[in-house]
């Protein structure tokens, strides 16, 4: 059985997520390893955007829920522009990293049609 080096920091998980997204054809527009930010990856494919918050393993449910709320409140991305997602990281026994994605409901959170300009993503 092949073993992989285990990701340990947010930067490691971010790298894994970016590799997965690029493999699906998404272009990474912005990324950040700052833990306190509401989102860590902004990517686009055509006119659709994905703003993704990465949650590291063993994060408490309370912190995960408050992070999800912070993402929705800060981003407010309407469905016609893309998705707001929280990816919960998992380490498999062989060391590989997988993600459990959760997509926020745009009917609840997606109210800002100028979000791309407000977050300064249109300059990239």
Q: What report would you give on this structure?
A:
The protein has about 120 residues and is of the alpha+beta class. It has a single domain, classed as Trna Endonuclease, Chain: A, domain 1 (3-Layer(aba) Sandwich). It is built from four helices and five strands. Strand 4 and strand 5 form a beta hairpin. The chain is globular, with a radius of gyration of 14 Å. The relative contact order is 0.19.
Instruction: Report the principal-axis shape.
Output: globular
Side-by-side strand order of the widest sheet: 1-2-3-4-5
Average the pLDDT over all residues and give the rounded result: 91
**How large is the count of helical segments?**
4
CATH architecture: 3-Layer(aba) Sandwich
Overall SS class: alpha+beta
Beta-strand percent range: 25-35%
Which class in CATH terms?
Alpha Beta
């Amino acid at each position: 059985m092949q073993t992989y080096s285990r990701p340990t920091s947010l930067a490691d998980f971010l790298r894994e997520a970016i590799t997965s997204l690029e493999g699906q054809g998404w272009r990474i527009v912005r990324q950040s390893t700052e833990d306190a930010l509401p989102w860590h990856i902004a990517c686009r494919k055509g006119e659709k955007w994905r703003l993704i918050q990465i949650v590291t393993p063993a994060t408490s449910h309370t912190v995960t829920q408050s992070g999800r709320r912070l993402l929705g409140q800060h981003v407010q991305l309407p469905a016609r522009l893309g998705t707001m997602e929280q990816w919960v990281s998992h380490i498999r026994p062989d060391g590989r990293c997988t993600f459990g994605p959760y997509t926020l409901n745009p009917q609840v959170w997606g109210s800002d049609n100028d979000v791309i300009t407000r977050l300064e993503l249109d300059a990239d």
